[in-house]
Amino acid sequence: MKKKGIGFYFKRIDEIMSMAANAHLKKYDITCSQANILFYMLEKGKNVVMQKEIEQEFGLRHSTIIGLLKRMEKNNFVRVEVNPEDHRCRQVILFDKAFELGSEMKEHRKYMDSLITGALNDEEEKELKKLLWKRLRFSMILKHISNYNIQRMDFGQNRQIILQTNFSEKE
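The structure assignment produced for this chain is given below.
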């Protein structure tokens, strides 16, 4: 069997989990991406969340979030409106239908998590979460330094990143 890069496994796990979640959520007229937004809002305990906050949380472009929210609005999960206090911002308001789906989504998320961690003992699960969080944090750092050229990344013993800015010295 040919060895595959770790990215292959991340991608396959994501594809399988997304397909399973979408199949389960189809009966509610909601996709996995839309459910993630609802779940985020429900976990925050807020009935109203700013659209920009959702964009930042999921690292998605404004246009992508607009499309997701329009479909969610069409299916009566949310309402999107201009913030009365700041007309530059849009706020997302949860409808009752979202709250009704919340507890079922929470149970399904536990089930999906158990598919990933089912073969692991508690210590292995804890270590997996730690490593995944570490990797996620690193990805977020790289995303935020996208104005830099990454010249060399040494993940050996020194675990250092050497960066060179795209900015000229005049700036």
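Interim note for the steering committee: Residues 147-154, 156-171 have pLDDT under 50 and may be disordered. The CA atoms of residues 81 and 90 lie 5 Å apart.
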